[in-house]
Amino acid sequence: MNLAQILIHKGLVKPEDLDEAAELRKLENLRLEVALVRLGLLKEDMLLKIISEEFHIPRVDVTSAEVDAEVIRLLPRKLVYRKNLLPLSRENGKLRIATNDPFDLYAFDEVRLLTGLEVAPVLAGEEDIRKVIRAHYGVGGDTIDEMMSTDDLSVVGDASEQAENILEMAQDAEVGTLLGYTQETPAITWQDEQVLLDELLLAYDSKLEGVYPVGAADKGKPAPIAQPQKRTAKGVHIAKPRVIIPAFPGTNSEVDSARAFLKAGADAQVFLIRNLTGDAVAQSIRELADAITAAQMLFIPGGFSGGDEPDGSGKFITAFFRSPAILDAVSELLNVRDGLIGGVCNGFQALIKLGLLPYGEIREPDPGAPTLTFNRIGRHQSRIVRTRVASNLSPWLMRAKVGDIHSAPISHGEGRFIASEPMIRMLADGGQIATQYVDDNGAPTMDIDFNPSGSTAAIEGITSPDGRVFGRMAHSERVGKFLYKNVPGDYESRIFRGAVDYFQ
Fold it and tell me: What is the pLDDT at residue 242?
């Protein structure tokens, strides 16, 4: 039988008493038997007697009990007042505590966590416990709350004097829970044991390193970045340049991209690619080619085109752009009309696979070309990264200075830039390495905490030789006034504004 059933069986309460107490129990989050006592339906002394007999918990007279002064300091005042717990003594790894509610297991768990000791409860009356607590702990946190909530407060004398009086009364008040102290040594100390944080981190990270690696194996230093070459002069002047944004099946950033361009002053048009039938694909190719011909910019947004087709992303986009009509439109955009092409994440992957990056033209795949492949960690990464402008050769970065550091979100499983050492050197010497992953000190790094893809030379974004084609992994379009408030950083890379300014 539970305690309520025992009380009914012994004739101490009636079933209807339980119904009456249930409302108070729910209202004040009390145990049923405590609610019975509060309502005067059961004497506390009788309740404690029954609990002691039925559950073999000893009773003590705390008003005359000896209290260990050192044990008193084991528990914070706030917990003692809130849970009405009185620590009495410590012996054989157990803490003897007086309570009027021995079934409050949450309170005992809290004591265990704070002290590392098992709890040995003894029974005492609620008011008797409170009297002894006040005698040993002084004014408690609840006293301050009571003073501040009193309706009939009157002010006598100078306000500053009153404030001093309140502070003096509250010297011993518990206004928070002490969690611990800071220390110079980066370690966790528990009783007589101490473990260094570096050791804990290593043990945690290395457990499944062979299955899900968390550390980049390549610890080489990123290549030094040469100063950018002179930017190609613009040949057109347009007050409001038009940008065409193709949305492939699986694209998920076209709206964000369009919004960013509109904010920067461009005329943004999202073009939906249809692929349900062969005829639909052919029509989409013709219409996109016409749209590119009428635009000054082409921007391929992020996402997972084709669900990131098996064995690599961006293949559908690449195949689509290799069609003769679009190939001609892209060539005319770059070589005749001095247009710009950009791509983020999935779009960057497509630009790399097309050869537009780093060569500035669509060409057949080259074994020596750079590529984007699966993250070194072996899984998707979604987080905020810090990137440094290594070159502002590109018109997309004309509003940035070399050395500027921007924060941006990433969300990809294939963002690892890899290239041969000669290719890296060529990109660096030509000012084509646009942005790099950097640490808290602004230095390019291979540390996975800052370069989560494990990209060679910490490369996050590159350009074509003349800078008019630009691609990066970070989502510069996914920024806004109310985003990432809990992660400090400059999120305004201004690449969209730079692209618009190029034509003005």
Answer: 97
